[in-house]
């Protein structure tokens, strides 16, 4: 934990980090204040002294879990040499989720979107913004590939980006409910096929 933070900021970060896997596994509705106090060892008063309510904790936890994924993806993309390899990073990172790699509970975007679509507008908005940022990132890489001559000029950036996202999120869902990472591997082959199809 960052020691340059104030005591209040460190406590807030401790709560977020300690409950991240709980919210991502049990969901917003399934996570109780008792779960939070038991995991952190803090009182309800201490929790409410740092967060207005459980929803505020859940929003901060979503940002934390999503931030872990985003950081990993960004670092891998920066190391990749070609735009093709940069796009393939998404398949590689999400492939790791079915092998027990972070975050515990699976993809926070998928988990939050499924649970909050009709019940929690604030969490739904967080998940929607994450998906749109993801789409824009993929579209930007495709445009970069087009500009460099690596990808076909007629490649539809938004269509390809949304298709990749839908396949990855759908593949994670199928792998989770069937307890079969192999099913996700099959879906990722389609992601790779789509990326290879736009190469010149």
Automatic annotation (TrEMBL):
Pfam families: TetR_C_13, TetR_N. Gene3D superfamilies: Tetracycline Repressor, domain 2 (1.10.357.10). GO terms for molecular function: DNA binding. Keywords: DNA-binding, Transcription, Transcription regulation. SUPFAM superfamilies: Homeodomain-like (SSF46689), Tetracyclin repressor-like, C-terminal domain (SSF48498). InterPro entries: Homeodomain-like_sf, HTH_TetR, Tet_transcr_reg_TetR-rel_C_sf, TetR_C. Residues 9-69 form the HTH tetR-type domain. Signal peptide: none annotated. Residues 32-51 bind DNA. It comes from the Bacteria. PANTHER family: HTH-TYPE TRANSCRIPTIONAL REGULATOR LMRA, TRANSCRIPTIONAL REGULATORY PROTEIN. This is Transcriptional regulator, TetR family. It comes from Mucilaginibacter paludis DSM 18603.
């Amino acid at each position: 934990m960052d020691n340059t933070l104030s005591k209040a900021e460190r406590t807030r970060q401790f709560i977020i980090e300690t409950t991240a896997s709980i919210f991502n596994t049990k969901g917003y509705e399934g996570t109780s204040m008792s779960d939070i106090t038991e995991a952190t060892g803090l009182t309800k008063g201490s929790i409410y002294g740092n967060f207005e309510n459980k929803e505020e904790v859940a929003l901060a936890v979503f940002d934390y879990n999503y931030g872990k994924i985003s950081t990993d993806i960004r670092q891998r993309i920066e190391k990749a040499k070609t735009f093709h390899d940069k796009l393939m990073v998404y398949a590689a990172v999400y492939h790791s989720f079915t092998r027990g790699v972070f975050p515990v509970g699976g993809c926070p975007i998928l988990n939050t979107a499924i649970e909050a679509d009709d019940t929690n507008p604030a969490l739904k908005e967080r998940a929607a913004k994450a998906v749109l940022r993801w789409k824009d990132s993929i579209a930007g890489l495709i445009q970069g590939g087009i500009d460099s001559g690596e990808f076909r000029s007629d490649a539809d950036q938004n269509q390809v980006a949304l298709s990749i996202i839908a396949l990855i999120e759908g593949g994670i869902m199928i792998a989770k409910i069937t307890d079969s990472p192999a099913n996700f591997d099959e879906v990722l082959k389609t992601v790779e096929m789509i990326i290879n199809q736009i190469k010149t």
